[in-house]
Amino acid sequence: ESSIRNLREALFEGAVVVTIVVVFFLFNVRASVITLVAMPLSLLLGILILKVFDVGINAMTLAGLAIAIGAVVDDAIIYVENIFRRLHKGLRLAAFV
After folding, report:
1. pLDDT, tens digit, for every residue of 68-95?
2. Which of 81, 87, 89, 91 has its CA 20 to 30 A from that of 13?
3. Which pTM value belongs to this model?
4. C-beta separation of 69 from 42 below 8 A
């Protein structure tokens, strides 16, 4: 029970810190919401995939999920920033157009 409580506290504190950092770096509510929605969706999908393949959640899988969430948030920030930059410059968004 103690480890589950500590995990919940760490997840909550991490989510708050990530939210503050994302809002601080993007300075745009819509872009921040897009980025912050990517985080729980990717975590949920990762847990569902673990369940489908009957893999238990242990310290190793939690560490992998934490690293993956960091990468997803980083990529989401980069993609949203590039989209907004291109929209403000009037460039097309399609890669092959």
Report:
1. 888 887 888 888 888 878 877 876 655 5
2. 81
3. 0.65
4. yes
